[in-house]
# Entry
Amino acid sequence: MKSIELFAGIGGLGMGCELAGFEPLAVIEWNKWACETLRENKERGYPLVSGWSLHEGDVRDFDWNCLTDTVDLVSGGPPCQPFSLGGKHRANADRRDMFPSAVEFVRRLRPRAFVFENVKGLTRSSFANYFQYIQLQLEFPEATIRSGETWEDHLRRLQVEKSSGRRRKTGLTYNVVTTLVNAADHGVPQRRERVFIVGFRSDLGVEWSFPRPTHGLDALLHDQWVTGDYWRKHGLEQPAVPERFAQRARMLAQSLLPPDTLPWRTVRDALAGLPDPTSAAALGISDHRFQDGARAYPGHTGSPLDLPAKTLKAGDHGVPGGENMMVRDDGTVRYFTARESARLQTFPDGFKLHGTWSEAMRQIGNAVPVMLARRVAASVAERLIENEARALSLAGMAKKESA
# Structure
């Protein structure tokens, strides 16, 4: 199955899609540092990116003539700054809003499916109309905005199209599903909430819903405070139950059935095997250098070792303090190294990051966790393969009947 990756960053979503069986025909990214990271790994022959055709530049300037094959999947993470909780909240008024370009790729390539990822801020009430506008454009990509028409007028026209059902009978339409996801619920050692917008071309008749969570907080608390398995796994003595979890731990201990998911993965789980960056053992490990200057202050207290990390963030000017720090066992704080941050985003250790620590952390903070991307893309691939098999079966039956 063929795909194209927009707004690729350092390839978290693209790598997840490739792990799920998609072959990228083109990978598009404008940021020079992210492109340098991808190029460096490609030149080193890193397996997941070695075959990528990287196009450095604005997606609006993409040369469509380079695509000769049918595209099954369009994926990407349009820049999140217009919708980020830490941004200026300008949405459609922000020149960095790339959803119109994402819609254009869907319209022109007519993929069997698409997967777009963005920040939780996109779902805030102040963006409700524009969020609906994005979904309706992806649902009816051929109902383009007219000359002189405002986006609000276009939204109203799309709402009429949807309510009438006329366009569903002709033209290109998609069945669109939007889901707010916590990455920790899918095995990522980080509490990272993101919106996924997934669509299947309507003529395929595919029914899809977001994969069910595989990991949970209750299962982690059960391992920590009921069985103690978590502490034994890490070779530690079981500490006293924190007050905030004491009541829940008692309820779990009294339950007849254990939790039906795997435990949330913690910072300690993710960093197992990595030496302290201040030790001599860390010298030969790529991107694992100690960065001084971490300070805790109200609202910026760092990530405890025995829970999933807080959301890693990029920031406009370097690295936000609290979100990209760990709290050591003795209560002191330090910054995560770039390698540790990559692990928290489920990038493999063999993947190198280009640039300074601050630049590498920005790249990681903007990325989609590889394993979350793989889980979503694998679910999409499964439906597309089932659809193709069903189509082949029906074609075979029709051929027999006509013989």
About this structure: Residues 119 and 268 are 26 Å apart (CA to CA). Residues 370-402 form the longest helix (33 residues). Residues 2-213+368-394 form a domain with the Rossmann fold fold (CATH 3.40.50.150). Residues 83-91 have pLDDT under 50 and may be disordered.
